[in-house]
Amino acid sequence: MKLVLDTNILLKALIRNSKVRAALLSPNHQLFVPEHAIEETRRHFGLIMKKTGLSEDEVELVLGVLLTNLHVIPSKNIMANWKGAEEIMVGIDRSDTPFVAAALSLPCDGIWSDDLHLKRQKRVKVWNTKEVLGLL
After folding, report:
1. How many C-beta neighbours within 10 Å does residue 33 have?
2. Contact at 8 Å (CB) between 15 and 48?
3. HEC-encoded secondary structure of 26-91
4. Are 98 and 36 contacting, i.e. CB atoms less than 8 angstroms apart?
5. Which residues of 73-83 are buried (b: 16+ CB within 10 A; e: fewer)?
6. How far is residue 122 from each of residues 23, 37, 47, 101, measured CA to CA in Å?
7. Distance between CA 99 and CA 118 in Å, rounded?
8. 22, 132 contact by CB (below 8 A)
9. Which end is more exposed in the chain, N or C (fewer Cβ atoms within 10 Å of the end residue's Cβ)?
């Protein structure tokens, strides 16, 4: 499977050593993450540190390990689809525009996200964690 990851999936993998983390580290699929999601994840380091008891350096280390198996999509590579993604997300949640733009920019199977509202748009398939783990 080829999926674009939403920030909430990265956060789950950082907070818990779980099936989500194992899936992110598995070589059996291709996972893509917009540069924006990494920046957003770093803004939540305080929350991650509080929930895990890890130091900032330790959280950064775990993120680095996860990123070794993820394909980071530079922001400039999704700009051609930004406006279309913004239009798709009007009335839903414009903060998810980077993920829709990334999915539109790649040949992929959709977005892996646990944000229910993302499924309201019908242009890009959205897979929740239960669905993804059931396929892996």
Report:
1. 26
2. yes
3. CCCCEEEEEHHHHHHHHHCHHHHHHHHCCCHHHHHHHHHHHHCCEEEECHHHCHHHHHHHHHHHCC
4. yes
5. beeeebeebbe
6. 25, 22, 32, 14
7. 10
8. no
9. C
pLDDT in tens, 68-126: 999 999 999 999 999 999 999 999 999 999 999 999 999 999 999 999 999 999 999 99
- The predicted-structure confidence for 13-51, as pLDDT tens digits, reads as follows 999 989 999 999 999 899 999 999 999 999 999 999 999
Fold of 2-132: Rossmann fold (3.40.50)
Report the 10 Å Cβ neighbour count for 95: 12
- Where does the chain show beta strands of DSSP type E? 2-5, 30-34, 70-73, 110-112, 126-127
Query: Which residues lie below 8 Å from residue 95, measured CB to CB, with a gap of 6+?
Result: none
| For the chain, percent of residues with pLDDT exceeding 90 | 95
pTM score? 0.93
Q: What is the largest CA-CA distance in the chain?
A: 41
